[in-house]
Specification:
Radius of gyration: 19 Å
Oligomer: single chain
CATH topology: Alpha-D-Glucose-1,6-Bisphosphate, Chain A, domain 4
Strand content: 35-45%
CATH class: Alpha Beta
Mean pLDDT: 93
Shape: elongated
Strand order of the largest sheet: 1-7-6-5-4-3-2
Distance between the termini: 52 Å
Order of helices and strands: HEHHEEEEEEHH
Number of strands: 7
Number of domains: 1
Largest sheet: 7 strands, antiparallel
Helix content: 25-40%
CATH superfamily: START domain
Length: 171
């Protein structure tokens, strides 16, 4: 009986500690990751802009469904591996150099946006991806911290490189 009580108390302490740690982390964050590709800004922008083919090259996207425009902007419902779905709206599209998409689900685990800046270089293009996120749930803030705040950005940029047959390392 003593061991059962001790194990239960340890579990309670772990849960309370995790919640406290989650509350200590900032809810709003901004992260930027960058890669270099040997492609023109036009080719990169075209790949990013073609949301219907996103599931063909992005390892985390399972399905993309076009929705009616939201506030006159392109909207999609994207299903991700693991079962999460999000409504995503393209809020700025200034090809071939700038593209911003925003999560519009207010009841999801987080809200935020991804903004791409594509700049020509001597050997191709630099792609900078900036994520602005707002994670109100302290448990999800802790999970993001544990798994790495740029994990999905890095995987997305690596997959973008593979889309063009290139191996890239986000930094």
């Amino acid at each position: 009986m003593k061991w059962t009580f001790r194990i239960l108390m340890l579990l309670v302490l772990l849960v309370v500690g995790a919640v406290m740690m989650g509350y200590s982390l900032p809810a709003r964050t901004t992260h930027t990751r960058m890669i270099m590709l040997q492609e023109t800004p036009e080719a990169i922008f075209a790949a990013l802009d073609d949301v219907q083919k996103l599931a063909e090259w992005n390892r985390n996207v399972k399905k993309v469904e076009l929705l009616p425009p939201i506030e006159g902007k392109q909207a999609t419902k994207q299903a991700f591996k693991g079962g999460m779905t999000m409504t995503i709206v393209t809020i700025e599209s200034l090809g071939p150099t700038h593209l911003t998409r925003e999560i519009r689900d207010t009841d999801g685990a987080f809200i935020g946006s991804w903004a791409y800046e594509i700049s020509p270089t001597a050997d191709g293009s630099k792609v900078a991806l900036t994520e602005k996120s707002d994670i109100q749930n302290p448990f999800f803030r802790l999970m993001v911290r544990v798994f790495g705040p740029t994990k999905y950005m890095d995987e997305h940029l690596i997959d973008l490189g593979k889309r063009f047959g290139q191996t890239v390392t986000p930094r």
